[in-house]
């Protein structure tokens, strides 16, 4: 229970406990209460199933100007099937609040929301921009940020695949497991921060061909290493990030999210269809558990968040995203089973973000 307490925001957890006790004693059950915030507070938003919903998608990708990578816009890339656009996430114990773009912008007035991490962060930022643009189409856009001028709301992005710094030194580029200062310089300008870092840790090579995430060495304490166990490296980096959050974030003015481990669908064996990949998949997996089980690094994230003194909300999207083998660009973006079509699954990540922010305010 202790670690769970730290995973939600302090006050959210407090409500959860109070309401759960209240509902348990009054009605002899803890699920299914209908009155607004109460059911949300006691509901595990991340356990549920995907249901077909004719009213989806929540926006038309063709009219969203913020899809940064051609490959994310699957309709434009020629994907002919459209069922993948029509699934709504239904938590078992409650309804996910509807996304009201104008209300979101009003609540966030004057604030900057920043997505920090790899291209999955960009996927999520673009999705939120599209969701909001559908509600408020006539806005001005400035360079890298998406700004909703009338509401003074900025959606920003900080590219930091490993969260920790990569520093050019004489021997080459060094990935510094104990330093986040350089990347973090821009982070404090945000009011809401959503961090994500996993995919690059899980690669068998460090992506050498691509300049800005290239590293030649890893520095762990005083040791300079040619390579090391990437899972252990990730755990050390996350602890460095956690120390930064604990000493720099004032939870009264800033909200911090950690985006749970994003799954990929390269190996059909994970969902019981060995030999396949996401290519050609057009339906979600309808299951209460994922055959491939949790991703091992999820426990690292939980452990680090559980050890922190500042509240960080875990956007625990792994399971619900695992079910969406149909949500990737696949053959319409060079066999891409890592990123996500827009409209699509990232919209649900943002509905969950919205639900968490509603609870918070
Ligand atoms: C927009 O928000 C920022 C940060 O809260 C604030 O400094 C700025 O004055 C606001 N601008 C307008 C035009 O309201
Ligand atoms: C890397 O470390 C993790 C966690 O300590 C361990 O489970 C895993 O087996 C290690 N991997 C290799 C290739 O040694
Ligand atoms: C992590 O890497 C391993 C080994 O390459 C791979 O089998 C696994 O699917 C990857 N996990 C994710 C979630 O991408």
Automatic annotation (TrEMBL):
Q: Which source organism does the UniProt entry give?
A: Elaeis guineensis var. tenera (Oil palm)
Gene Ontology molecular function terms on file: xylan O-acetyltransferase activity
Q: Which residues form the Trichome birefringence-like N-terminal domain?
A: 42-95
Which InterPro entries does this UniProt record tie to the protein? Answer: TBL (IPR029962), TBL_C (IPR026057), TBL_N (IPR025846)
Give residue ranges for domain Trichome birefringence-like C-terminal. Answer: 96-355
- What's this protein's name? Protein trichome birefringence-like 42 isoform X1
Gene name for this UniProt entry: LOC105040673
Q: Which family does it belong to?
A: Belongs to the PC-esterase family. TBL subfamily.
Q: Which UniProt keywords apply?
A: Golgi apparatus, Membrane, Signal, Signal-anchor, Transmembrane, Transmembrane helix
Bilayer disposition of the protein: Single-pass type II membrane protein
